[in-house]
Structure formats: structure tokens, C-alpha cells
Amino acid sequence: MQSEAVRSSLSMYGMFMDSDLFMKVLILGLLFTSVWCWAIIFDKVATLKKIRLAMKAFEEKFWSGGSLEELFLAYAKSPKDPLSVIFVSAIQEWRRSMSERKKAHAAIKVSERIDKVMQIAIDKQVDKMETRMTFLASTGSVAPLLGLFGTVWGIMDSFNAIGATQSTNIAAVAPGVAEALFTTAVGLIAAIPAVIAYNKLTNDIDRMAQRMETFSDELSAILSRQMGQTED
To answer: Where are the alpha helices (DSSP H) in 63-81?
Structure first.
């Protein structure tokens, strides 16, 4: 009968139900954090995949040899990916700058203005892709500490119970120690996927940012050649 009670208390549900209010709140908080991390991970994976495919489609159109003017008219109202956003911003600034050059001498070179506009567009797109990434990073670093704190709290409770009952029987000690270690396990369950996903997603975002930088350099070179031909 006693062994049956021990087995019950050592189950996950049993350990949760036997814990005090503080431990229950901590465990539920870590579990909620884990669920929210997985929601962010699935959303980010799907979003980045969609952006990657849209960028590839735009690049194919851009390098197809068609007119930049036609491509601009096709994407001006609703750019669907970071590369098209950069392209539309650059062409809009190029048009505005070329119009101003006919009226007065610009204080900043046109190419520099275009480069600044594209860099601003890149920064905004990267910031958008990095939304909620801080939560993953914070979970990866804080969740194990919260789990460890819960373990320390649980072990303190176990020793207090041992002191109160004056019993060192393993059957009496084991449930309290297992309950204490359970919070560390929950903290690791929340932290490990968050760390792995954060590193993977950060790497993907960095690669896409580099792709945007490369495209902006190529577009800047193309527009510079066109400006040179216009001046000639």
C-alpha cells in the first residue's frame, strides 16, 4: 500500500498535485512559456519560408532581363517581400532624386541617398523578421534558472518535512526530492527547444539579411550605371 502511494506521488501529475502553490505557479508558468515558444517557432518557420520563396520569385523576375520600370509598376503598390520593398524604395528615391537634380544641385549625391534609403528598408525588414525572437532568447537563458530555483525551493521543503517528521526513510524522502527535480526538468523542456530554435532562426535571418545587402549593392550598381548613361 505504501509503495503504491509512492508510485502515485512520483508520477508527473502526482508531483504537480502534491506541490505547494508557489511550485504549481512556477511549473504552470514554465509550461505556458514552453507552449508559447513552440507557437513562436512554428510561426517563424512558416513566415521565413514564405519570405524566402517570395524573395526567390522576385529575384527571378528581377534578373529575367525585363524593364526595371515595368517591374517597379508591378510591385509599387504592394511589395510582397523584403527584396521588392528594397527595390521599390530605391526606385522611388531614384525618381525623386533625378527630378530634384533638374531643379537644383542636391546636397547629397544621388547614389548615397539611394544607398541610405535601401539600408533603412533593410533594417526595417530585419527588425520585422526578428519580432518575438527576444522571447526565445530570454526563455533559453531564464527558464533553466527558474527550474533550478524551483528545485532549491522544493529541496528546502523536503528537508523541512524531514525535520518535522524526524524520518529519513527513503520512501518518505524520495517524493519530495523528485518533486524538486521536476521543476528543473520542466525548465529544461522550455529552454532547450527555445535555444535551438533561436540559433537556427537567427542564422536564417542573418543569411536573408546578407542576401538583402547583396541585392542592394547590385541594385545600386545598376542604378549608378543608368545615372551615368542619363548624364551622358
So the answer is: 68-75
CA distances from 49 to 18, 40, 65, 84, 88 (A): 44, 14, 26, 16, 22
The verdict on pTM exceeding 0.85 is: no
d(CA 172, CA 187): 25
Per-residue pLDDT tens digits for 104-148: 455 457 788 889 999 999 999 999 999 999 999 999 999 999 999
> Cβ contacts of residue 122 below 8 Å, gap of 6+?
82, 86, 209, 212, 213, 216
| CA dist., res. 207 & res. 109, Å (int) | 30
Rounded to whole angstroms, how far apart are CA atoms 90 and 88? 5
Helices 68-75 and 21-62, axial angle in degrees (round to 10):
150
